[in-house]
Amino acid sequence: MGYDIERFVGYVNEGLLCSICRDVLEDPLQAPCEHAFCTACIHGWLVHHSNCPEDRQVIDVSLLRPLYRYMKNDLNRLQLHCRNREYGCEMVCSLESIDRHERECEYSQIPCSNAGCTVQVERRNLDGHLAVCEYRSRECPNGCGYTILSTEDTQHNCVAELRTELELLRSEMICRVEEAKHEMESRLDSQRRHMVQKESILQNEIEELKSQISRLMSDVRSLMAAERQHRQELEQAELEKREL
């Protein structure tokens, strides 16, 4: 939909009106036949039709182009009233700058920023509303540190709130201790399994070393026996030599 033509000051050229909604072009697009439309209007039209609503020439979304620069300039220079005119805003500015003004307009209706509040107020009156809003929050004046809503003032009990907070902290602490306990037990089990595995490996290595030592001892005894036999043979040979 375009801008309501009633908002504009002075004459608006026919070529700057949307061929569908007949209001002043908003975010305009132009067909090859040079008829101009609001983007939202022509896209909605082409969902059910395949031709120009003015001269019935065949058109497609891919054929739509931005408005000619001179027409765009003429459009941007148009002067119009702020949409908050009914609330008291008397600003008149160019179409090119109207969006920027309306985003900051003191007469714009904006929602209250307090959670739960559905009231909409003029931007200029927001601070005054926030000061008395029943959904505003503040810290307990008695010093318990609890943030309360104005609607909860009469029900607020510092002792009860602190007790509830304490219980929540205790529950949270218990949960954390249990989590830490489970984590430590898991780590200990993992380390225990690792140590058992290492112990088994070391035991096997010890048994292998014992076997190797036993074989070496056997070889040493065999060598010693061979040496004694060899010495005896030498002694016998020496005796025989002397006899000869």
Short description:
This protein has 244 residues and is mainly alpha-helical. Helices cover 50% and strands 11% of the residues.
Helix/strand layout:
Blueprint: E1 28-30, E2 36-38, H1 39-48, E3 65-66, H2 69-77, E4 79-81, E5 92-94, H3 95-104, E6 109-111, E7 120-122, H4 126-132, E8 137-139, E9 147-149, H5 158-243
How would you describe the overall organization of this protein?
Residues 18-56 form the RING-type domain. Residues 192-243 form a coiled coil. By secondary structure, the chain is mainly α. Among the domains are: 5-104, Herpes Virus-1; 109-149, no CATH class. 50% of the residues lie in helices and 11% in strands. It contains five helices and nine strands; from the N terminus they run ββαβαββαββαββα. The protein has helices at residues 39-48, 69-77, 95-104, 126-132, 158-243; strands spanning 28-30, 36-38, 65-66, 79-81, 92-94, 109-111, 120-122, 137-139, 147-149. It has a three-stranded antiparallel sheet. A two-stranded antiparallel ribbon has the order 4-5.
